[in-house]
Write a structure and sequence with these properties.
By secondary structure, this protein is mainly alpha-helical. It has one domain: Serine Threonine Protein Phosphatase 5, Tetratricopeptide repeat, CATH 1.25.40. Helix 7 runs antiparallel to helix 8. The radius of gyration is 16 Å and the shape is globular. The N and C termini lie close together (10 Å).
Length: 210
Amino acid sequence: MNAVTVQSWLTAAAALLREQRDYLTQLDAAIGDADHGTNMDRGFTAVLAKLEDLDGAPPGKVLTTAGSTLVSTVGGASGPLWGTALRRAGRALGGAEEFDGEQLAVALDAALAGIVELGAAQEGDKTMVDALAPAVRALRAGLDNGSTVAEALTAARVAAEEGMKATVPLQAQKGRASYLGERSIGHQDPGATSTALILAALEQAVAAER
């Protein structure tokens, strides 16, 4: 995998987030500010514009630039959180021109750590962590068991979707949704949903290179 893989990932993520923008906003209207879909779409559209200036940059640089772009263009919590995630992932990859499955797992570990550190959320708090943490574990487990990167990413995407769905019965402990108390129960978390979409985009990008 290389910078083309990362650019394909971000491009696919932007497309999925645009396609699901209204759905994400609908989810957010129930327990948040009704702006998550719009914010994520705007942020990843800005990322796409930045990618045009990054031809020849290593994958780590592409990710750190994407992260900085999200921080500066996305409102609410999702911009700083995903911005931090991508910047940490980019730094984990360093200046190498290519990376393998193990390095991808390390990068996603770093992304998750950045989100947990900034948002102070753990699994079960009804946030994006509920999708990302099981996905990172599934990716690592797949690779450790001899799966290809593509196979391990499929397992990661499935784990993210399961984690996303598991947010429905939870009471939110972090963010705007936490103000609702028990009224947040019964609603799927929008951040976990967009996270599952972003991981699905990564799966697509890697599968397309096989």
